[in-house]
Amino acid sequence: MASATLFILFILQACACLFFYTTGAQANITFSTIFSFGDSILDTGMNNNLPSGRCNYPPYGRDFLGKVATGRFCNGKIPTDLIVEALGIKDIVPAYLKPDLQSKDLLTSVGFASGGSGIDLLTSSTLLQYVKDYIAKLTEVAGEEKAKANIANSLVLMSVGKNDIGVSYTGGARKLQYTFPAYCAQLVTWSTTFLEQLYALGAQRFSVLIARSCSMTTNVGAQMYNNLLKAGIASLQSKHSDAKLVFFDIFTPLDSITSNPQQFGFQNANLGCCGGVVSCLPFTTLVCPEASTYVFWDSLHPTERTYRIVVSDVLKKTLSGFS
Which of 62, 117, 258, 272 could form a disulfide with 121 if both were Cys (CB 3.0 to 4.6 A apart)? Predict the structure, then answer.
């Protein structure tokens, strides 16, 4: 796995990560629920229901609760889990399509993110229908008034752009349909349209966090997308005067780790802990003995320890802006 390739892929991932949340007016902000939308960085198992892009097999989940491969692209917890843990909501976030999803999960947190997907999925009727079905189930369990309050006090995470640019455009058929600037503009339109749909479904008071402009002189394409995205979200804020926008940056702490791994106690920042060109090979035994010494679990996704450092850094810098 080349360091340069990882560098570019995570620029794209970090600079397309949107965090939406709704809050009350209290000084100490709390969240009742967390929802996640997007791709593999936030996927807690929705990908298990897709024909491809799965990771619900060992060695994934080697260090997760019960040592179970749940569909998370990691050896353990991912940012979705770590954020709800840090906010004191719950320990982990179940995927919405989890067969044994409990009523209590509907009240606290569910994940809609799916590995391998891009913003195209967000524009489909399928995902929006999942959200509507969720709201109907939540209303049945909690009652209409509490369901509305729960959604209004939610934190909604959305990660988009990595697969769209890195896969759908760079290595896919989108090049035949769009110039790159036109495609970036279309991605922003799709993103803001989906957010408008979420707003219409009950997120009446929300603040918006998007990835701030990253240092990406080596990646002009990603910079172009990021600038258009910032403009699109600013337009959304002007349309909804109650919106508050704050840039959410996961690239800087990740770049610090990959640039100076020893400073953070890592021994390897160039290879993934498990085997495989992209993902870990199913049931492979070619896995490092201690994942906490590696920055990356597979060739694209960090280990739980790396995620913990990144999430801690981001929340420390961002939570004060919620009050």
Answer: 117
